[in-house]
Amino acid sequence: MKRILTINVFRQCLNCGYERFELEEVIIGDNNQRTSSGFIICPKCNGRHFALVGYRDRRKAHKDMNLPIVFGKTSNGKEVIRDLVRLPHLLIGGLTGFGKSVFLNSLICSLVQNNPPEHLRFVLMDPKGVEFGAYAKLPHLYSPVIFRPEQCMTMLRYVEAEEERRLAMFGEKDVRDISDFKNYLVVVVDEFSDYILELDDAFVSTLSRIAAIGGSVGVHLVLSTSRIDVKNVTDELKANIPSRLAFRVCRKEDSLTLLDEVGAEDLLVRGDALFKDRDSEVVQLQIPYIYDEAVTRIVDSAIEQYPERELVVGHSLTTVENVICRSFGHINIGGVPD
Which of 21, 58, 68, 127 has the highest CB neighbour count under 10 A? Predict the structure, then answer.
């Protein structure tokens, strides 16, 4: 029986030497042999010389991680992979067109491929309304994709309430580790600085409160922005989100704001980034690449695999009262009775 698996792939152009690290679908045949697309068009020289030179099945290599994220590959070929549960949040910054959206797609698709909706749900916030349209019917959604500022604040208040509910439940059940439940909520906010323009300090303060206790109850923030300044990337936010991913920025002051050190202003190639977390120094890497067509296929596959899944929060996001209508508690977290 044939099955499709999304794995980490290394490709190299045999004509110009260009290399890229990406996610790619391979077919597992009846004899468990893997087949791939072989040579494809090189994005640099446009010749059909882009060859598969290596791969790794992340699900086998990182079974000890709950929510593994592939950040990329260093210049010496070392994979940089971290568990979102341990990070436990991520702040992303950089100029438009240098890889932020590609990385967010890679992150979402990686987690979807490895976790059923019972274990993982997403809140996706997109002020421009252009980045997360492909995920509108994703079974892993916690709510409809959020666009408007008023919807954003309402949803964040609900996430706060969900954190408090989990804390209370953990106390009642004498639970000390969210991994016992394997039930995670990942809030991804693209261009969060756009929401700050509309919502001002209330938005940043709410994010900071969510981040302060979120990691201990399985709620994780992934925030992205192209406007890096002290009004958007505040000290309060940085104190609660120690893990950062920086793409190319305009000035060294921007790199200092995001990473607390210079370097991101010198990145030249799309997909090149600097990553740091609480456990390591800054490392330069090339992020994994994922095609739009692959995103569509992964979402379609999830819809086919989990056809009856419903949103945890319904379509009415006008008031907090309407939003707080359903929760993970009604889905029976981790098999523990409500």
Answer: 21
Locate CATH 3.40.50.300 in the chain.
Answer: 77-335
Report the pLDDT value the prediction gives residue 96, as an integer from 0 to 100.
92
Q: Which CATH number describes the domain made up of 77-335?
A: 3.40.50.300
Contact 16, 35 (CB under 8 A): no
- Paired with 327 in beta bridges are none
pLDDT digits (tens, 9 = 90+) for 55-110: 444 444 466 788 988 898 888 878 888 999 999 999 999 999 999 999 999 999 98
pLDDT at 332: 32
